[in-house]
Structures are given as structure tokens and as C-alpha cells.
Amino acid sequence: MTDTLRIALLVEGSSDTGIRRASTWLEEIWNGHLVPAVGRQPFEVVAPISKKDLVAMDPSIVRSTGSEPLDMKLVRLGAGEKFDAAVVAWDLQPAWNDLGAFCRWAECVRLYELLSQSNVLPEPWRMQAAQRLSDYGQRAVPNARPTPPQLRPGTVMPLCMDPEFESLLTANEAATRRALGLASTPSDWPGGWGPGGTRRPAEDVLRVAIECVPGNSPIRRRIRGGWRQQKSAWGEYLLRQLLAEDVGRQSVVSHPISVRLSELGN
Fold first, then answer.
1. Which distant-in-sequence residues (6+ apart) come within 8 Å of 232 by Cβ?
2. Do the bridges between strand 156-161 and strand 85-91 make them parallel or antiparallel, or are there none, so unpaired?
3. Residue 2 has pLDDT above 50, yes or no
4. Can you give the pTM of this predicted structure?
């Protein structure tokens, strides 16, 4: 990201907000912690999205209640006025279109197809989407790219988080255990840590690990509720704690999600 290009982040986020808005949690997690950790400038706008917003762009699919098509959301948030380009980040699991066997490559291609066909986006944004779609089609294999992608005015850049954002928080088992204030491994401690450990790190790993934290611990007094009730609060806390120590920080910044974020705009 450059100093002159204003960039928005539209990111899939938890629906649990408590007394704080989802956008406030996302602003703290991304602009407050992750973006500085990978050496990037803050996003101009940070806004939550749902996978329903991505699917809602497809005219062949009945729009879900409460969804706002992503192209309409970009316009409402100020595409071309308040920001010049956008990064759209969503979890790969579960797939955002449950009508097909979508993978990361297919979801990115479909995103550009729908953006290029939009009847609400400004023309430069549609043209950039069409160009990106053409670039994808010229690759011999999905990961055959000569250089990292460039953010330009009108660009929407996908950041498909594989398998989900929470894999950043489960990359190093020992570091996360320390972040939770646990000196040793509890008997009911979960498995599934690290790359390939599970396709559901949030539910299979973090939820169970947090349940191992004693109710009288300082962390429990700070965050009242488990993972399902306070996803954003736990996510922000764990990310902050991991980045505060060398091992945890390395596990975060070397994760493919962070590497991809660091490449944007170079």
C-alpha cells in the first residue's frame, strides 16, 4: 500500500459485537495490530462484510435476507471518492457459494466475474475487474503469477483467508497457550494446531482452548464469555498477545495470510 493510494478493507467479520460495533473490532485487529506487524500503512476504511454479500452479487441466486451485494457496498462506502482501491478478505471455509464446489481460485475468479458485470460500480472499477479476470485466465496454473499483484485506482484485490482468519492464531500451539496464561498443557487441551491441523481452527481449536482457561484467571475477568460469545474480543486479545513475543510474532507474520497482506501494493 502506498501513501498516496487510499485503500479500503472489506473483511468478513464476526457478528458478535457486544457494546462495540463490528467495524470497531475489525479496525483494531487489522489497522491496530496486523497491518503494522507486516509493515503496511493503515487502511483508509475498514468495514465488515458477510459471505452473503459476495453471493448476493450473483443475479442467478436469490438474495439472502440482510445481505448487501458487495458492489453496492463498495459504492455506498465511497468507491472512487473516499478510497481509490479495495481489499476484500473472506474466509475460505466454509465456501461462500454452497451451490458449487468452490476453491480459493474459483472464488477469486467468480468475484472478478461478478464485479466486471456490475451495473452499479463506476466504469474504472468494472474495467479493472475485467482486466484482473483476463490476467487470471492467462495463467497456465492458478499460482503461476510472475510478480505479486499491484493495487491501482479501481482495483479490488481478493484476500481469501485459508482456511479462515483464526488460523493466524493457531499457527503456534505453545505461543497461543502462553497467550492464554497457561503454564502447562491442560488434560482437555485440543489438537489440530498448525498448518493443516484442521479446516475449522476457530471452532475445533480456539473454542476448546479458551474453555481450558480457568474462570478465575485475569483473562476471564477481562473477557466475560467464551469464544462463541466473544469472538472479536478473544481474537483481538490473542493477536495482540502473540505479536508481543518473538515466537508468537513470527508465527503470525510468516503465516500465508500475513504474507499475502504484506505483498499488496508492493
1. 13, 14, 16, 17, 18, 20, 22, 25, 26, 29
2. parallel
3. no
4. 0.90
